[in-house]
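for the recovery benchmark. tokens below, seq after
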């Protein structure tokens, strides 16, 4: 583990990507920051340098285009001669019933959230395989294991990222490569993704409780950097419980997720149809948080997590008793 690692982070302009960049900056990393919003990237780079990063260069571009991830890889090699860590985090989302989502919006989520990750992995591996070292972290989601209504392209994509990691790990093992691929599965995070998502539901979006600070997922990413041998990392006790119970009783947990979504994902306010930031970056100032936290909201988060975990466990037990 390098004391000053060369780290490439996609989706670095806001949310988890930005939080991860700042965390590595405090550990004196040399950063290559990738996102579509050039102005926001410049802000992140300045903040990272102020926090202790040894270097921070920006690569504006769309990760759905492999030229962007190749430029990020080339930049890391030109400046530092290697890549130690590559973190795929750039993602978009769109809400709506599957049959009501326009095809081009569905395809756009898949392009960014699957092909963008695949592009990042390819660009990383063309450096890491010859250097015979490196870590790739793919940020998936609990929704990749427990799918959610109204987010079919996002849930599909996050499931694909889990499968992608498993497949690549098996190929690396067969070739006896020491490169590591770790998949991280966060729960709902306090980031701006909900403000920026496409929305065809007619209802204003809320962050689905329980909501966790991005720092909890950052901690898992840092743990993967220090101990890359664990292939998948699920964030939060509630998240681990959901994944475990879903593998035992998928229909029961999916029904619970559907009810939880209907109760907690939407505010009591209408929303006009929007493509959000699917096709162009947000023009608003970007940050790590989305404003979904706060002491009172954190208390509700803990209670919601406990209720959700207990409720799912009860439903699974009841289902097993009936069978």
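predicted aa per position
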């Amino acid at each position: 583990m390098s004391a000053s690692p060369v780290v490439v982070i996609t989706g670095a302009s806001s949310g988890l990507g930005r939080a991860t960049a700042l965390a590595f900056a405090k550990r004196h990393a040399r950063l290559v920051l990738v996102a579509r919003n050039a102005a926001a990237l410049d802000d992140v780079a300045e903040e990272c340098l102020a926090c202790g990063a040894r270097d921070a260069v920006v690569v504006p571009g769309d990760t759905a285009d492999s030229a962007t991830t190749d430029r990020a890889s080339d930049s890391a090699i030109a400046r530092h001669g290697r890549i130690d860590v590559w973190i795929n985090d750039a993602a978009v989302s769109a809400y709506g019933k599957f049959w009501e989502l326009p095809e081009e919006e569905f395809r756009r989520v898949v392009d960014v959230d699957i092909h963008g990750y695949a592009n990042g992995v390819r660009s990383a591996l063309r450096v890491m395989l010859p250097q015979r070292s490196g870590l790739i972290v793919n940020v998936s989601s609990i929704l990749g294991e427990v799918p959610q209504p109204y987010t079919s392209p996002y849930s599909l994509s996050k499931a694909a990222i889990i499968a992608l990691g498993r497949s690549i790990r098996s190929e690396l093992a067969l070739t006896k490569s020491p490169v590591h691929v770790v998949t991280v599965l966060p729960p709902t995070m306090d980031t701006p993704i909900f403000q920026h998502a496409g929305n065809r539901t007619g209802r204003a979006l809320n962050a689905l409780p329980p909501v966790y600070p991005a720092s909890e997922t950052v901690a898992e990413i840092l743990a993967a950097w220090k101990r890359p041998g664990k292939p998948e990392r699920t964030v939060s006790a509630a998240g681990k419980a959901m994944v475990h119970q879903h593998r035992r009783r998928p229909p029961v947990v999916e029904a619970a997720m559907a009810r939880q979504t209907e109760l907690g994902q939407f505010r009591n306010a209408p929303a006009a149809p929007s493509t959000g930031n699917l096709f162009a970056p947000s023009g608003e100032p970007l940050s790590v948080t989305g404003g979904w936290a706060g002491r009172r909201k954190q208390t509700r988060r803990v209670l919601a997590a406990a209720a959700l975990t207990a409720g799912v466990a009860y439903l699974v037990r009841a289902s097993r008793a009936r069978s």
